[in-house]
Amino acid sequence: MTNYIMKKIAGLFLGVLVSVSVFAQGQMQEDKAEAESGRNGFSSPDFMTNIDGRQPIPLSGKWMAIIDPVDFGIGSWAAIWKDKTPTGKTDFYEYSFDGLQLDVPGDFNTQLPELKFFEGTVWYKRIINYESKENTRVFLHFGAANYISNVWLNSELIGAHEGGFTPFQFEITDKIKPGKNTIIVRVNNERRADGIPAKGYDWLNYGGITRDVNIIETPETFIKDYFIQLSKDNYETIEGWIQLDGSANSQTVELSIPEIKLKHSVITDADGYAEFSVKAKKLQLWSPENPKLYNVNLTSGTDRITEEIGFRDIRVAGPDILLNGKPIFLKGICFHEESPVKASRATSIEDAQMLLNWSKELGANFVRLAHYPHSEHTVKLAEKMGLMVWSEIPVYQGINFRDPKMMEKLDFQLKEMLYRDKNRCGIIVWGIANETSKNPARDEALADIARRTREFDDTRLVTAAMNNWRMSPSENVARIDDSLIESLDIIAFNAYVGWSNKWPAEPGTVKWEIPYDKPVVFSEFGAEALYNHHGEADVASSWSKEFQEQLYRDNLKMFEGIPNLRGTCPWTPVDFRSTRRLLPKLQDGWNRKGLLSDKGQKKRAWYVMKEYYESKEKNY
């Protein structure tokens, strides 16, 4: 890799701008539009990698809050970000932060009954005391907030962000002051036709500051980013790049892995950038059976950071998926970032542990984190537990691929996902879309996204979950019909045969015609059933565990007719909340496709899938 090429690749995702705006008196509507569209001069929030290695100052806990259903506080009349209090006999303001408190991280929908389905604006406020340090840069970092966020420090707008599932940060070195400081955040989770995802998604739209908030301190020149990976050409070579940020960018940086006695030094250029390629003998490669991670140290003249990183090789060869050169079958499960037991957004390491423990108990070696990037808690823990990961951006049904602004947002969210998790070896698949309709604009856009994803990171596979297939009942044949397959490494498709689609014939006789020499992953299948609810096994409307059990058995028979099948991902391990599930007594606002109930109780289909995965142990 040449310096020029790597800089070019790194810059592919840096050209998209998300702006902020300065709010003017008497311009409420323009102010609101500018705040949300973000196009007025500030570059995109540019977060650093591995904040856990920075001894972050956590801002978790109770934040003061104001519920603003009509987004009144964004305008000049209310101007909630100014945080005014009456000072004279004639002063008054029609808002106050003295009252409601909300947990951060946490969604606001589950903290008050009246906010259960709320989609709108909530204002957050936190007062902090800060002790200034010499030669130190200071950043305010958000793990995620859904969906549009505006952030003020001491009533000064410091930035905005659009997107509900990726981190963002703002440098506040010259804005934070010794002693008392006030942070105010406006978060709006209204569904948007021009949002990613758009309006029609099938999960509860949890709003608020849903992941950790931290203050990060760094030296004046610090190690901002790096990509450290196993070479695709040699299992005894580690390669990658390092990026410094500051005024003293040209430095010697040492890469060390003490466990294998590796030390290697590079000199960064005037832009703080350097590439490296170094021999690393006796590496233990990461796998589900041996999820080996190494302490990797980076030390410059002004900074030092450590991260646990693993090394593995993932690729396809014809119909096979090869992990470290050996064929594997992806025994998967899809799940949302939701704690069903709490009926809320999953926000903690304990929430992640629960979801991943269920996956392991089922016999999975692979999780599809649907339909957006999940928290770093989940990704890192999955890696340590030996679970391979499919991570995807929320390009869900209803995206307008003809809109250039929509494509900018897609690029931006893709960049944030790739940059955050590029050093997580457990991630083997980047997902770029789910159930998008065929049209020339979509085909061109997603093919381009697939190409540029590989240019940035050629150490992982690229796919999209498609649902463009059709049955031919007269022939008992299902045919994949999507030209996007040409651009993907894995053919992944969602098919609810026996549920959303009727069986054209006996399940064991249905054949899949797939005219591509590529691996196939059945990325979603299943049916709804209410736990402990009985009914006919051949009646879909029974919502019974008998029906769900039989449907799973029928799908497993059908899988035998898929010649290139190399993975399955049932939908889902556990029931999850959805505003589109309106059937009283049976759904009551829950999607009941889980193999477990919302209380974690096992349905019959759980045991069917567990037995299937146990049988795969003999072959893979």
Describe the structure.
By secondary structure, the protein is of the alpha/beta class. It has eight helices and 35 strands. The longest helix has 18 residues, at 404-421.
Secondary structure: helix percent: 10-25%
Radius of gyration: 25 Å
Describe the largest sheet: 8 strands, parallel, barrel
Number of strands: 35
Distance between the termini: 35 Å
Strand % is: 25-35%
Which key terms come to mind for this protein?
620 residues; alpha/beta; 8-stranded parallel beta barrel; 6-stranded antiparallel beta sheet; 8 helices; 17% helix; disordered N terminus
Topology:
Layout: H1 3-11, H2 28-37, E1 57-58, E2 61-68, E3 101-104, E4 121-130, E5 136-142, E6 148-153, E7 156-162, E8 168-171, E9 179-188, E10 213-219, E11 222-230, E12 237-245, E13 252-257, E14 262-267, E15 273-279, E16 294-299, E17 304-309, E18 314-317, E19 320-323, E20 326-328, E21 330-335, E22 338-339, E23 344-345, H3 349-362, E24 366-369, H4 376-384, E25 388-392, H5 404-421, E26 427-434, H6 440-456, E27 461-466, E28 469-472, E29 477-480, E30 491-494, E31 511-513, E32 520-524, H7 545-559, E33 565-568, E34 576-577, E35 590-591, H8 604-616
Parallel strand pairs: 21-24, 21-33, 24-25, 25-26, 26-27, 27-30, 29-31, 30-32, 32-33
Antiparallel strand pairs: 1-10, 2-3, 2-4, 4-9, 5-8, 5-10, 6-7, 6-9, 11-12, 12-15, 13-14, 13-16, 16-17, 18-19, 19-20, 22-23, 28-29, 34-35
Helix pairs in contact: 3-4, 5-6, 7-8
